[in-house]
Design a protein that fits this description.
By secondary structure, this protein is of the alpha/beta class. The chain has one domain. The protein has 14 helices and 9 strands. The strands form 2 sheets. It has a 6-stranded mixed sheet, with helices on both faces. A 3-stranded parallel sheet has the order 5-9-8. β3, α6 and β4 form a beta-alpha-beta unit. α3 crosses α10, α8 packs across α10 and α11 packs across α12. The two termini are about 15 Å apart.
């Protein structure tokens, strides 16, 4: 095993402190991790050729591509501070990594960003993509009564490319957006949305409406992105995929309990009677994803999300951890590479 303190961020070890007492509470289950191990076997770290650009006009114009009318103010403020960028240009691929003038960009991070895109290409085929990755110091934290985009979201995609605006969890978010871009996100899962929203009283204020913001497929997207991320964490740390998977399950459990507690719920069944108000896909990103992750549930055309969410064993596990000591962090992963 490698020296984990040289490989993982300090934030990883801080997060671990909150779950160390429940890591061994649940048995590490032998589950089928063929997909994760395949990704790990396919992964190679490359060192790309790149150019550093410090022309403020060029950097500002690229940063503006991440700002639109729905961008939250903190995001706009941080993007306006970007002063430098790393440019990688190849056939069918352009990556622009933006960072602050007074900060140092680690070559290892450049290599990892490039290499995870390459492994995704290798597994899923080549597509022409523009990446803009802004390494903004925007932490995922609970900072408001209603959890929204400013608290949790880190990227987006459109027909032209993929746009990332948080340094935190940047590698996992790249996988998440690639899954969307390649249309591997099984949007047919949104057929369950009306039923789920009604049963669990999920409410979207403002313009974040069910009719225009289908979100159930986000749970599966996040689940698959996490599998890719586990493969990469295992590759660099030398820790088995089975152990990493187990730790991520426990972290996901911790985050679910934290969110329910934030919404003044004392147990899972409070979701049936109390409103769950969100301005992002919080229920999907955290709660449905947790259920998929806990039992390693793969997609099938007959998948029944309601039935999955009513699993009494998992409800019991959530309820018995509602009194943990919770911080304010909202990262979707426990592990994070430097």
């Amino acid at each position: 095993m490698n020296n984990l303190k040289d490989i993982l961020t300090e934030d990883t070890f801080q997060r671990f402190k909150f779950i160390e007492n429940i890591i061994n509470k649940y048995t590490i289950i032998d589950t089928d991790l063929t997909e994760i191990n395949y990704i790990k076997d396919m992964y190679i770290e490359y060192t790309p050729n790149y150019t550093i650009i410090e022309d403020s006009m060029i950097v500002n114009n690229i940063a503006k591509m991440l700002i639109h009318k729905n961008s939250f103010q903190e995001k706009k403020d941080e993007l306006n501070k970007m002063q430098k960028l790393v440019n990688i240009k190849e056939n069918n691929l352009e990556i622009n990594i933006l960072y602050y003038e007074d900060s140092y960009i680690d070559k290892n991070l450049i290599n990892k960003i490039y290499s995870i895109i390459k492994v995704f290409y290798k597994i899923n085929g080549l597509k022409k993509i523009l990446f803009i990755v802004a390494l903004c110091n925007l932490k995922r934290v609970i900072s408001s009564e209603i959890i929204g985009k400013n608290n949790v979201n880190g990227g987006e995609d459109n027909l032209l490319g993929i746009y990332i605006y948080r340094k935190e969890e940047v590698l996992k978010v790249i996988f998440h957006e690639l899954i969307h871009y390649y249309k591997l996100d099984h949007k047919e899962l949104d057929n369950h949305q009306s039923k789920i929203y009604k049963k669990f009283k999920i409410i979207h204020p403002e313009s974040f409406l069910e009719e225009t913001n289908k979100s159930i497929h986000e749970s599966y997207t996040e689940y698959i992105a996490l599998k890719y991320h586990i493969a990469i964490i295992s590759y660099y740390t030398g820790v088995s995929s089975k152990i990493i998977y187990h730790y991520e399950k426990i972290w996901s459990l911790y985050q679910v309990c934290k969110i329910l507690k934030h919404y003044k719920m004392n147990n899972f069944k409070d979701l049936y009677i109390k409103e769950f108000v969100e301005n992002s896909h919080v229920f999907s990103y955290y709660i449905i994803k947790f259920y998929l992750l806990w039992n390693n549930i793969n997609y099938s055309p007959n998948i029944d999300i309601i039935k999955i969410l009513e699993n009494p064993e998992i409800i019991k596990i959530i309820n018995e951890n509602m009194m943990l000591n919770f911080d304010k962090g909202l990262t979707m992963t426990l592990f994070e590479l430097k």
